């Protein structure tokens, strides 16, 4: 394999792992938040605030993976 092909494979692997991990995390966060609100509706504002913050952190990981994949590909 030449260098360009290796860079492409590394970038694809990085973005694949970087997309699957946060996708699973976002699904779990949404599921658990819905379950918590269903059990205790009065706590919905607190649960929603924590859920949105956790979703933002999970999404940031996906963005970091995209940046790393672009760095691998173009440097």
What portion of residues belong to β-strands?
under 5%
How many strands, what sense, and barrel or not for the largest sheet? none
Mean pLDDT: 93
CATH architecture: Up-down Bundle
**What is the 3D form?**
elongated
Contiguous helical run count = 2
* Backbone CA Rg: 17 Å
What would you call the structural class?
Answer: mainly alpha
Number of domains: 1
CATH class: Mainly Alpha
Helix percent band: over 70%
Secondary-structure element series: HH
Number of strands: 0
Put the structure in a nutshell.
The protein is mainly alpha-helical and 75 residues long.
What report would you give on this structure?
With 75 residues, this protein is mainly α. It has one domain: Up-down Bundle (F1FO ATP Synthase). The protein contains two helices and no strands. The two termini are 18 Å apart. The mean pLDDT is 93.
Task: Please name the defining characteristics of this protein.
single chain, 75 residues, mainly alpha, F1FO ATP Synthase, elongated
Topology:
Elements: H1 3-39, H2 44-74
């Amino acid at each position: 394999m030449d260098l360009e092909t290796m860079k492409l494979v590394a970038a694809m692997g990085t973005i694949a792992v970087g997309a699957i991990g946060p996708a699973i995390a976002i699904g779990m966060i949404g599921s658990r938040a819905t379950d918590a609100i269903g059990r205790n509706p009065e706590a919905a504002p607190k649960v929603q605030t924590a859920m949105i913050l956790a979703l933002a952190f999970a999404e940031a990981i996906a963005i970091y993976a995209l940046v790393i994949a672009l760095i691998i590909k173009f440097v």
